Amino acid sequence: MSNFVNGQWRPATSGETRTNVNPGDLSDIVGEFAESGAADVTAAVDAAHAAWPAWRELGPIKRAAVLTKAQAVLAARGDEVAAAITREQGKRLGEARGEVDRALAILEFTAGEARRLNGVTTPAEEARTIALTFRKPIGVVGLVTPWNFPLAIPMWKVAPALLAGCTAVLKPSPFTPLTAQLLVEVFAEAGTPDGVLNLIQGDREAGEALVADERVAGISFTGSLAVGRAIHVGGANRLLRTQLELGGKNALIVLDDADLDKAVAAIIHGAFGQSGQRCSATSRVVVDVRVKEELLARLHDRVSAMRVGIGTDPAADIGPVVNQERLDACLAAVEGAVAVGAKVVCGGERAVEGLPEGYYVTPTVLRDVPWDSEIAQEEVFGPVLSVVDCDGFDDAMRISNSVKYGMSGTIFTQNPARMFEALDQFEAGMLHVNRPGVGAYAHLPHMGSKMSQYGAPECSPQVWDFYTEWRSACITY
Ligand SMILES: NC(=O)C1=CN([C@@H]2O[C@H](COP(=O)(O)OP(=O)(O)OC[C@H]3O[C@@H](n4cnc5c(N)ncnc54)[C@H](OP(=O)(O)O)[C@@H]3O)[C@@H](O)[C@H]2O)C=CC1
Ligand SMILES: O=C(O)CCC(=O)C(=O)O
């Protein structure tokens, strides 16, 4: 299980490997994967750099043909890829299948954009002159991706990078190397020329080497605020272009006129889907005190009945978290919350009974969480939901916007004026009304506000502002 450089699968130069295990069953060894260092990154950037001129010259419409073929290959291998996602990431098979569908939609949307990579023609100041703008690919890009969406996130970076005419080095999370390998296999099978898409498996050392290589024109990163900041600062001297999609501490507001049945269903989906490990996850419910007890009673009944299980178990409602670090972080967050006065409504423990040895956390609801406590301000990235009280709409918006992050914002109300006021006031990038606070479309910008995002949005036509740069031209004839 290797790196992919210039069209060849090869081990790390050092020969070192890292063992990848199934987080839902630690006795299941997924495989040994290359543990790359700076020399491997240099070789991958060499290949991407050499492949760039021919790929750039091909033009977007011919490049789109590779994406369309990749869509067909991925569709044919969808079950295999979904099984790999569940095995190494832990999410339930249905969720993994949904991720494959999302990746297919990204390929479909991005290939279609080939005929819409437009510039403009503008009036000129002189006679017999045309002024126009057009886009050019920025060059070799480094794509550093996390483990929570091991297929969809790399796909929404690789697909636009390649369509734009960039060549790429993908450095996936060391916790999900198999899915990244399958993604690269799909592109290879689709006829991507050698060197256009390269894969380097590894950790921080490989990521840092990518950032440091002066031939890399841009880094697109999804992950924690701390690492996003380190990448941005690490590249600042050479004015490295970065696109950073970082954390979230997302609020779902429940006003006193909300449909509580729909709100509870949305909260469960947003807080516990993918075991809460998504940047847009609902991690705070901000509930009006007038409906708080009723909402908590319903949440208690529904959440305590959820069945924790391995992702391949069709009866499981929630799978494991991805690794020991996440497990420890969830349990520590609960302990910290209780220490500042929050109460556990349900969950809050490691789940072991009837389960293989793995990283299982019971889905957790905490009530009476102070709005300014650490757990209400910092990302947990796991199935731990904080319920915070509010008194009316203005208080709900104040609390929702009190965090440094701004990924998603959601409101449940039947009052249309409140819906629009909330859309106006949320300091967050992705907004939802009377529906779960997670989920996105390939054609809508995927991004946050404040410290959740830096640089151009992902997905959508706005993504071209990362992978391309503008030229303006004046032609006198
Ligand atoms: N916004 C989001 O969608 C996501 C947010 N997260 C957040 O991040 C936390 C930690 O998860 P983790 O997967 O470790 O994510 P990180 O953001 O910490 O790391 C992501 C990747 O970047 C690498 N890396 C670390 N330092 C650098 C650097 N200076 N330059 C380049 N690459 C670097 C990491 O290597 P190494 O593993 O060796 O550190 C890893 O492969 C989660 O708990 C969650 O809060 C995680 C996933 C997604
Ligand atoms: O929640 C989603 O749909 C995408 C999540 C995401 O981009 C992330 O967690 O990094």
Automatic annotation (TrEMBL):
Residues 9-472 form the Aldehyde dehydrogenase domain. The active site is at residue 245. InterPro entries: Ald_DH/histidinol_DH (IPR016161), Ald_DH_C (IPR016163), Ald_DH_CS_CYS (IPR016160), Ald_DH_CS_GLU (IPR029510), Ald_DH_N (IPR016162), Aldehyde_DH_dom (IPR015590), Aldehyde_DH_Superfamily (IPR050740). Keywords: Oxidoreductase. Residues 1-23 are annotated as: Disordered. GO terms for biological process: gamma-aminobutyric acid catabolic process. GO terms for molecular function: succinate-semialdehyde dehydrogenase (NAD+) activity. Belongs to the aldehyde dehydrogenase family. PANTHER family: SUCCINATE-SEMIALDEHYDE DEHYDROGENASE, MITOCHONDRIAL (PTHR43353). This is Aldehyde dehydrogenase (NAD+). The lineage of its organism: Bacteria, Bacillati, Actinomycetota, Actinomycetes, Pseudonocardiales.
